[in-house]
Amino acid sequence: MKSLKRKRDIEDHERLERAVEELDIKAEIKDFSDLPLSQPTASGLEASHFKTLTDIQSKAIPLALKGRDILGAAKTGSGKTLAFLVPVLENLYRARWTELDGLGALIISPTRELAIQIFEVLRKIGRYHTFSAALVIGGGDLKEQKERLGRMNILVCTPGRMLQHMDQTVAFEVGNLKMLVLDEADRIMDMGFQSSVDAIIEHLPKERQTMLFSATQTKKVSDLARLSLRDPEYVAVHEAASSSTPTTLQQYYVVVPLSKKLDTLFGFIRANLKSKIIVFFSSAKQVRFVYESFRHLQPGIPLLHLHGRQKLSARLDITSSFSAAKNSCIFATDVVARGLDFPAVDWVVQLDCPEDADTYIHRVGRTARSEKPGKAVIILDPSEEEGMLKRLEHKKVPIKQINIRKQKEQSIGAQLQKLCFQDPELKYLAKKAFESYTKSLWLQKDKEIFNIDKYDLEGFHASMGLPGAPKIKFRKGVDVKKLKNAPRGDDDEEEQAKKPEVRTKYDRMFERRNQDVLSSHYSKTIADDDPEDAGSHADADEDNDFLSVKRVHQVDEESSSSEKEEDVAATGPAAKVIPGIGKEPIVIDSKRREKLLKSKKKLLKLKEKGVKLVYDDDGVPHQVYELEDEEDFKKRGSAAEQRAKFLEEEAARIREADLDDKQLAKQKRREKREKKKAREAAERRGETLEEAPRLAEAGEDEEDPMALLASLPLPEDEDEDEEEEERPTKRPKKWFEDASEDEKEGAKKRKGKGRVIEAADEPETLEDLEALAAGLLN
User: Fold this and answer.
1) In which family does this protein belong, per the annotation (predicted)?
2) Sequence-distant (≥ 6) Cβ neighbours of residue 311 within 8 angstroms
3) Given phi > 0 = left and psi -120 to 50 = alpha, else beta, which region is 452?
4) Model confidence pLDDT, tens digit, residues 407-442
5) Fold designation for 249-409
């Protein structure tokens, strides 16, 4: 049976080889069933519901099956992924590739999300093949990838991680590589990936099949030479078409000043709550700020954000959540602009102008995929309109202008200011977002579109909720260090007068004065100076005091009643003065203040606070932190002499304290020994010395109240006594002195098992010493 199966497989391979050789590359092929494909590939395509070929697939797959090098260019959403995955599976199948043959095909993608998407499509259509495939991207487990990499036949990877494995993984061999595929080749050729791609290609064998695919392909001689393409076939299926974007895509643009962009975006989201929206920004910091601020504003639709600074697990979760959602809005950078296929996207909004027309085409390609309808709108600043429209027209992009309905316009500037004022973290994000946006404008190559001097950066700064005028340090022609170090008096007064004062909403808010609060500094100024000069002082101090009084009514007891009536008629009712509560009299110049001061808590705050005092040995009061007069200090001598005297006094005091402590410790030890001897004598007589403590009776002298507690036995003392009882008695100076009867009994009581050996006479000879030693050992 095995021999028959092997023979049948050989015949199938030979038949498939002949069919591929006989395939006409100029013939018009519409279905996958018309192609000479193996049974596993055909079954995988059918199970994945792929039946009809797209334009790029019908032209690129026959050439790839014959082993030609390909440069493929087609619109976004036209099926370029299958155009290289089907030839990869077929060419390895016809070569009878096995696990022992090593790596056969390498597919490189510029982003992790696109690599994951390619790998998922490969798993679907290659489910009936026996090839081993792996996804090698940054953020994954490097150790696990190293263990499995040597057994893989097909790898889908990003340039950085693949280069890392080529340099570090010993078991990874690419000498048998048959096919190299670069998806989104124009992006991979950018400066960010150029060095990595060059290093990868140096490791690969020269004899291989190479395929490059992108929505905006370029035919650069340098790129072709670097990739070692051999007579490549240039497949561009939409060059003759009237548009480089799908015909089912409706494209619009709106001209809005930079200061109104966030208002326009919020109004757009509020008007499309039942839609699936992608909003593109130029930097990750802008994405974070808009996402966090719009979360607080709650437009009424689920919000997501995706950028390159997130971890891989978070990016995968967000991508899957947005794909599964019916109504959602995701804020993203250009990491989403390439190749990702999100189902049923209704709107693509470009809040920031793309760097070129190719980036625009990739962004709008996230909708209207596979001939389904979609809409896209780009929000342009007036300075960007002419240059961007000219470049889109050159790329055959049909776009028309629309205006925003006035009833749909919403202003969120005040709300953002309030949020930034309340939340310092959001204010920090806003500041970083502004800096990253201005820096992206400054770094753009096309200065005809992006002229930073034509943008209303101050208005944009205020629209984000940030107070103060923006400072751009990287602008050309401005020497920042020179301006920073220049003295302030060098500027001409006339030029300073001509400079317009920048006033923000926060500046105007901080200039408002509370008329009902009188600061102590201001009241002191009014009380000390002449009433006629009070107004001038108020004007002088107005900029220095955060809270000050705009108008104060003075009370003159000597004035006549007619003058009082005139004052009341001219300036309102006279102010009330409450003396005697604090150092300064309290002036009540409004009913609201009078009502507030009826509260005891309010009056308590205005009362004069007391001073904490301490008394010395002579009973003289002093403040806790009282400073000594300098003259009195100098009378006692110099600082060095007083320091030496102080140290000498402290040392003598410490010595006396040490002596007292030693005497007290010695007395305690003596009392302890006496108590121990009395207890031992009582035990020998069979008596006890423990008596129950009693309180002093009425007629007796009162004792120390702590005497009762001191008479009680302490656990620590008992432990120490037991330890001392267990200690052996001190040996006599003479070894063989006769022991008394009392000493023998005491030793037996202390040791229990101890023995006393008596020696009749002092040993004189060696034999006597040996006999004594034998007795001791026994």
Assistant:
1) Belongs to the DEAD box helicase family.
2) 139
3) alpha
4) 888 899 999 999 999 999 999 999 999 999 999 999
5) Rossmann fold (3.40.50)
